[in-house]
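pasting for ref. prot 1 ->
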Amino acid sequence: MAGKRRGNGEGSIVRKPTGQWMAAMTSGRDPATGKLKRTYFYGKTRAEVSAKLAHAQSDKARGTFVEPHKVIVAQWLETWLEDYARPKVRQTTLDSYEGLIRRHLIPALGRTPLQSLRPDMVQHVYNTKHSDGLSPGTIGMMHMVLSAAMKQAVRVGLVMRNPCEATTLPRVTTRTMHPLTLEEVRRLLSATKQDRLFPAMFLEFGTGLRRGEILAARWSDVDLDTGVLHVRQALSRVMNRGNGTRKTHLQFHEPKTDSSRRTIPIPSDIIEELRHHKSRQAQERLLFGQAYQDHGLVFCEPDGRPIDPRTFTRRFDALLKQAGLPHFNFHSARHAYATIALELGESAKVV
């Protein structure tokens, strides 16, 4: 009868031949065809599907209904990485995001349906990772990546809320840094004076450059007459996303931030060392002849190839040991530079 006809979206509940109950409601129109779309809910009892239907109808009335889908967390993280993160971030940043997703997020949450991801599930992962010894800093990066992906999922209508917003991160403890003292730097430079990488280390302690900036410096970036170095590029090892057989490759890229493009004064004694270094490099170029790969780099392999940042770090660690000094991260040399400059009387503002 006409009086009993249900309107669009009111829903219906039926029992299937298998004994399972099913509810259905009209959830909208297909934007491609204009046809009405039906959304289905299943359960073991009529009361169960009735509750699901009522909840969906309430959400629809408030304009907060999200159509059920079968996307799992792993699939969405892959989509977010390729379609939303890749166009916005640097290759090195993308590689770090992918590493966090592959090593931590997918193994822990990957099989979870995206719409079923709850704050307590995410919190459990953070707590477990922390108990297993993962640093608060790395967990914070995991949280940043997952939260960004879930924010995008909210924007495109896959989920109603970002579960990461209701989680608590482990407290970050500040580590006390002990950079090399002026006397220790002198010991290191004295013990490694004959090493091929000595000029690079000398330049580092006199300028506080990043490792990738030192290895990407070109002679065209250095003015030996005025004693300045223009930071215009950096060198990193990044993931190989092509069809090559190697997993990674070296890549020159823009400096880390806009403020990283800068001009740095070089102390006069380092200028003299760079002049000698340039002469030695010219001899290597003659020795290799046509086999020399000239990238115009200040610091390179004997045949002109860029120095792999990992190789540079291993060599730096070996030189520390050779000088009888404790191990410390090469990045800490930037802090050593600042400490030494202050020790030598430079103003804090200039440093």
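and prot 2 ->
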Amino acid sequence: MKTSQAKSLFVNFGVCLSLAIGLTALSALAQSATSPPPEQALKTKTELVKLDVTVLDTDGNFVDGLKDQNFHIFDNGAERPILYFAPVTDAAKVVVVLETSPSVYLIKDEHIAAAYALLKGLSADDEVALVTYSDLPRAVMPFTTNKAELLTALGSAQYMIGSGALNLYYTVSDVVDGLARFRGKKAIVLLTTGLDSSPPSQWTELTQKLRASDVVIFSVGLLGPLANSVADDQKGSKHVPGASAFDSGDLQSNPALKKADQDLTELATMTGGQAYFPMSSAEFAPAYLQIAACLRNEYVIGIAPDHDGQFHRLSVTVADSDNALLGKKKHKKKKKKHGEAEYRVSFRQGYIAPAS
């Protein structure tokens, strides 16, 4: 399959997205404002590296109320001054990417039924869109604030029959391209096994593209519930073409399945998102709720990039007013070392600097 084929399909999706943006712009022109919103202020700064940062405590609760002085951003180890800072209140654009292989068909009722949790947790102004894929990405639904339309579209998705190519990397790459025209908070939610039949070079191209993008990826791996479903179907002597590779034994020992989970984790980690691996249908809804909460509780931080055309690794620490790292606590008197961080900070792992 050629990359241009997949891109051409997503161009049509991008046109729909542009129409949605145009309508939003017309609505905005009809409103008066005394000061620019945070995102407008962000647009006025050139060559700004944007990080979407979330901070969680040990109980998994989001830490709010932090100020710019609480954050320290390091670019290849050197601290950079923060040029822009705001808790995210702007609407997000969220593209749900659904794998439509015959194997995923086995558990479609479980994860689609739980999708209400994601939609319920999003803000009213957040926009959602749907792309499905097997061999090619297919733009099913353009951006809309009507969350019920996504549930309808998910329920009407057409699944592939029999074995065939799965091109996750091509699909994610094309969705990232389609989102590049938009500013602000952008996220991809992957509902996928993580399996891909692309050549290794496609993974390299995708990771390079993500390093130059500010899209956040949330991965929901479907292998665990799928293995359980296949095991149940085997007991009932059912057979679904293309699903034989997902028996519970293979899930534990098959290198390809292990790599699929690793890839989903890496996609999420490098973009500042999270990866979730539910093991049963009951674990879908909590994962979706967590994703929605992440999107509502991100801090936006902007720094100036370097200009050497190279990849720069980023790191973020959170400190209190006395510049002491948050989330560090001392052990009992017998131990002098600090304990592990109580807070978990998620952020974009790096960026490709513009050439000088």
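The chain has twelve helices and 14 strands.
The first helix runs from residue 3 to 29.
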